[in-house]
Amino acid sequence: MKALYFELKKIQNKRLIILLFLVPIIVTAGLYTYRSNSSIDFRRQEQQTANRLLSDLSWRLAEYNDQRGYYGPSQNQANNPDELTEHQQYIYDLLDASERERFHYSVAAYHENWADLNQSKQKIWLNLLKVIDAGENLRSLNHDELIADTYKLDWLIEHNIDHLDFETDNHSAFVLFNSFQLLLGLPAIVMIIYLFGLESFLEAKREQFNFSRVLPIPYAKVLFTKLKLFISMLVIYLVMSLLTLGMFSLLLDENPLTTQLNYPIVSTLTESVIVKPLWEVFTYQIIGFILLSLLSLILISILAFIFGNELFVSFLFATFFTTGIQINQLYNKDSQFYNPFAWFNSNYHIIHNSRLHLVLTASLLVIFILILFFFVFLKGAYLRPWSFKDTYKQKHSLNKLFFVKFEWLKIRRQNFLFYSLAIVFSFVLTLAISQFQQYTNDLSTLVERNEAAVADQARTKQLFEESITSIELILADEELQNFDRRQYEEQLEYLRESYSDTLANHAIINQQLIDIKANDYRLFNQEATDSLEQDYHFVMGKAEVQFSRRIPLRHHIFVPNAYINYELSQWKQKHSIDFVPLGGPFHTLFIPEYEETPRSGENQPPLSIDQAVFENYLTTVSKPHQYISGLNLSASLLTDSIYLILLITIIVFFATSYATELDNRQTIRYLVTQPKTLVQIISTKLKVAYAMTFLFILLSLLITFTIGSLFNGPGQMDFPFIQYIAKSIGDSNEFSYFNIPSFNEYFQILPLWKLVLMGLALLLSNAFVAINLTYFISTAIKNRWLVATTSILFLGIGMVFFYYIPNQLQQFSPFAYLNIADVLSGESSITHNYQYFNWITGVSSQFVFGLILSLLTFLRVRKKAN
Questions:
Q1: Alpha carbon of residue 352 to chain centroid
Q2: Is-cis flag, bond preceding 582, omega within 30?
Q3: Engineered SS bond to 24: which of 7, 241, 310, 313, CB 3.0-4.6 Å?
Q4: Where are the alpha helices (DSSP H) in 38-142?
Q5: Coil/strand/helix, residue 70
C-alpha cells in the first residue's frame, strides 16, 4: 500500500484526479438533459409508418389481384384463385393477412392504444419477414429493419411498455449506453493515459529511475505497482460511471433497471443476426476499455520515449487510430477480430461481432499486452531516443544572417514544423475520409435507387406484356360482340403505347445504371441538369412545365434555391464539370422556413403545403455542394473550420518563441549578450516566424491537395462556388451579377482556382495578425501557454463581437475576416448589406492592423530595453 501511495505522489497535478469523478457525471447528466428536451410524436410516427405500409401492401396486392382477374376483362375466370401458383398464393395470403392486420394497426395508432398497436405490428412484421424470405421486395421496409423491430417489439410486449425510441429515450441505461461511446472511447483512453499513467511509466526508461533500481525492491514489483495504480484510476472512472447509472435509475426512471438492461441490441450486418442484451454489451465495453487502455499505455509510452514529446505523441496516437477507424469502416464491413483499428472502434465492434469473435479479440489483446509489457518493461528492451542531428557552428556567429539562422535552427531542433504538419495531416485526412464516405454513400444510394427503378420497370413491363397477351386472346374469340371488340381494341392500342414508353424508360434507366457502375455520369448529369431546369421553370410559372418532383407548389419562396441551382447546373454544363451524385439541388442561403409558406391567415396552418411534404422538400435541398478531389479539399481547408487549427498551431508553435525563452530562461540570455539590440532580436524572431508560417501554410496546402488527389484525382479548376453579393453592389453593377427573380438579391459564381487564391490571401493575412498579436502580448506576459491562450481568446472575442454587434464600421474590422468561409460565401455581406465586405478589404485591414501591432511591440520592447 505504501508503494502505491509513493507512486500516487508522483502524479504532478493531483487535483486532476477529480476529473475521474466529475467527467462521468457531467457527460451522463448532459446527455440525459439533451435527451429529456428531445421529444418524438410517436402517434404521428406510427401513422406515417401505417400509411407507407398501406401504400406498399396495396401496390403488391394489386399486382396479384390483377393476375387473378379482379381488374379488367377476363375469360369468365375473374375470381378463380387457381391462376396463382402455390408459391404466389402463399405470398398473397401473407400480404392479405398483413393488410387486414394493418387496419387494426392504423386504428390503434390513431387512438394511441399502444398494447394493441405493438401486437398488431408484431404480427405484420412477422408476415412481411416471411414475404421477403420468399423472394418478394417491399418499398417502405427492408429485411434488416423488420428483424430489428421484431426483437424490439418482443421486448415491449414482454415488459408491457407502450413505446420507446432507443436513440432519444432518457432512461438511465440507454443514456449510459450513449455516454459510454464518449466515456470509454479512444479520446478518453488517451486523456487518462496522458494525465495519470504516461509519466509514471516513462520514468522506468529514464535515468532518474536508477535510484529505484538500487532499492531492496524487485524491479518487477515496482512496475506492477505502477500498473496497479493505473488500473485503479480506470476502476475509479468506471465505478463512477456505474454509480451515475444507479443514481439516475433510482431517481428518474419509470421502468426498472433490470428491464432496461435486457433491451435487445440487434446487428444485421452479417449473414446471421446477432442479438445481445444491453447488460452483456456493457460488460464487453468495460472489459474492452480496460484492455485497450493497457495496450495504449504501453504503445504511447514506447513512442513518447522515442520522440520525447508526450503531448504530441498522445495526440498523434489518438489521431492515427481515429483515422484508421474511419478508413476501416469505408472498406471493411465484415468481422475483424484481428484488426487493431476495429478494436478501437469498440462500440461498433462489440455490437456487430459474435461472442466467439469478441472472446478472440480479448485473447489477442491480452497476448499483445503481456508480450509488450514483458519485453519492453520487464526485460528492459533497448529503446533509443530520436534526436535531431543538425548542428550550429559558432564560427559563423558574426555573420549578418547569424540571428536568422540561429532562430531557424531552434525551431527546427524543436521539430515544430514536423509536429504542425502532422496535426494538419491528421485533421485533413479525417475531413477527406468523411467527405469520401459521404461520396460513397451517395454513390451507393444512387445505385440502389436505379436498381429499384430498373426492377419496377421490369415488373411494369411484365404486367403490360401479360395484359396485352390477355386482350389479344380475347380479341381472337370470333364470338366477341362488335361493341366489346372496339373497346378491347382501344384498350390494346393504349396498352401498346404505354408498353412502348415503358420499354424506352427501361432502356434509359438500365443504361444509366450500367454507366454509373462504370463511373460514367454523363447520362445522370444530363438528367440532373434537365430536372433542375424543370424545377426552375415550374416555380416561375411556365405553362409547358406543369410538374416538379421536388417543389411542392408554385410560390415565390422556392424561386431563389431553384434559380441558384439552375445557374449552377448551367455553369457545370458550360465548363464540362463532371459533378458527381447527387447532382442537386444543393443547400443555399435562401432555403425557406416552414413559417414562410403560404398560410390561410396569421398563426394558421399552411394553405397548400403539408408539413411532411415541406420537410421532404427541405431534406431534398439540404445537400452540401461538395466534391472530394485535390483542389476541392484544398478549398475545404480554407472554407471549413480546419483553417482555425492552422491559426492555433501557428500561435502555439511559431509565435511564442520570445515568451517561451523568457519563461524558461533559455537562449534569450545568450542573445542579449551579442552586439544586437533587443529590438533587433525581436525583429529577427518575427521574420523567422513569418517565413516559417508561410512555409507551413504552403506545405499544408500541398499535403491537402495530395490527400484529395489520392482519393479522387486533382479535380477541375472551374468547379463552381456561390458567392452572395450585397444589394448595394448588385444594384450599381446589375449586369455583372446574377439577379434572383422576384427577390432582387445578387450572387456570382466563382471558379475553384479563384476561390482558393482568395482564401489563401485571407489565411496569410490572418496568420500575420495572429503572429503580431501574440508577440505584442508576449511583451506583457512571460508564460508561453498563457500568451497563446490570451491571443486565441482575444481573436475569438473580436470575431464574436463582429457577429453579435453588426455595424457598417464592422466591415473594416480585422476580426471580421477571421471567418474566411463567411467572407468567401458573402453571407454577412448580403445579410447586413456590407458593401465593402470582401477579401481585398480583409487583407488590407488585417495588414494595417498587423503593422500597428508590430509597431507597438517594438515600442514596448525598446521601453523595456531602456
A1: 21
A2: yes
A3: 241
A4: 42-68, 86-111, 114-133
A5: coil
Q: What is the DSSP string of 454-489?
A: HHHHHHHHHHHHHHHHHHHHHHT-TTS-HHHHHHHH
Residue 197: pLDDT band (50, 70, 90) is confident
One-letter-per-residue 3-state SS of 206-272: CHHHHHHHCCCCCHHHHHHHHHHHHHHHHHHHHHHHHHHHHHHHHHHCCCCHHHHHCCEEEECCCCC
Res 383 pLDDT > 60: no
Quote the cell numbers at residue 88.
404466389
For the record, the C-alpha cell of 106 comes out as 392504423
Residue 11's Cα: distance from chain center in Å?
37
> Do 559 and 543 form a contact (C-beta atoms < 8 A)?
no
Distance CA 642, CA 665 (A): 34
What cell does 799 get?
470575431
Q: Which of 695, 712, 700 is nearest to 630 (CA)?
A: 712
Q: Write down the pLDDT at residue 423.
A: 82
Dist CA 236 CA 218 (whole Å): 27
**pLDDT tens figures, 341-380:** 888 888 888 888 888 888 999 999 999 988 888 887 776 6
Q: What is the pLDDT of residue 852?
A: 93
d(CA 107, CA 128): 20
Backbone angles phi, psi at 601, to 5 degrees: 170, 175
> How far is the CA of 841 from the CAs of 155, 643, 727, 816, 836, in angstroms?
63, 20, 18, 10, 7
Tens of pLDDT, residue by residue over 385-418, are 555 454 544 444 445 566 667 666 666 666 677 7
444-451: Cβ within 8 A, 24+ apart: 445/581, 445/582, 446/516, 446/524, 446/581, 446/582, 447/513, 447/516, 447/517, 450/509, 450/512, 450/513, 450/516, 451/513
Are the beta carbons of 69 and 79 closer than 8 angstroms? yes
Evaluate the CA torsion angle 537, 538, 542, 546 in order and state its sign: positive
On the question of a cis peptide bond just before residue 585, with omega within 30 degrees of 0, the verdict is yes
C-alpha to C-alpha distances, 389 to 416, 657, 731, nearest whole angstrom: 15, 21, 63
Q: Using the structure block, give the residue that is written with the C-alpha cell 467572407.
A: 823
The three state secondary structure string of 549-568 is CCCCCCCHHHHHHHHHHHHH
Distance, CA of 741 to CA of 744 (rounded, Å) = 6
Q: Which of 167-181, 224-238, 275-289 has the highest mean pLDDT?
A: 275-289
d(CA 621, CA 570): 18
Q: Which amino acid is at 817?
A: Y
Counting every residue, how long is the chain?
866
Report the distance separating Cα 170 and Cα 148, nearest Å.
Answer: 20
pLDDT tens-digit series, residues 490-529: 888 888 888 888 888 888 888 877 887 777 777 777 778 8
User: Residue 845: which pLDDT band, with cuts at 50, 70 and 90?
Assistant: very high
Cell of 137: 421486395
Spatial distance between the Cα atoms of 693 and 765, rounded to a whole number of angstroms: 11
* pTM for the full predicted model: 0.71
Give burial (CB, 10 Å; 0-12/13-18/19+) of 818.
Answer: buried
State the average pLDDT for the chain: 79
In terms of C-beta density within 10 A (0-12 exposed, 13-18 middle, 19 or more buried), how is residue 193 classed?
buried
Q: Which three cell numbers stand for residue 483?
A: 361493341
Residue 485 · residue 475 · CB < 8 Å: yes
Question: What cell does 340 get?
Answer: 487493431
Helices (H), 380-481: 402-413, 416-475
CA distances from 150 to 129, 144, 282, 679, 700 (A): 10, 10, 22, 76, 50
C-beta of residue 672 within 8 angstroms of C-beta of residue 681: yes
Cβ atoms 471, 495 nearer than 8 A = yes
Q: Which residue is listed with cell 494595417? A: 848
Which CA distances in Å does 284 have to 248, 380, 552, 659, 837? 22, 32, 49, 48, 55
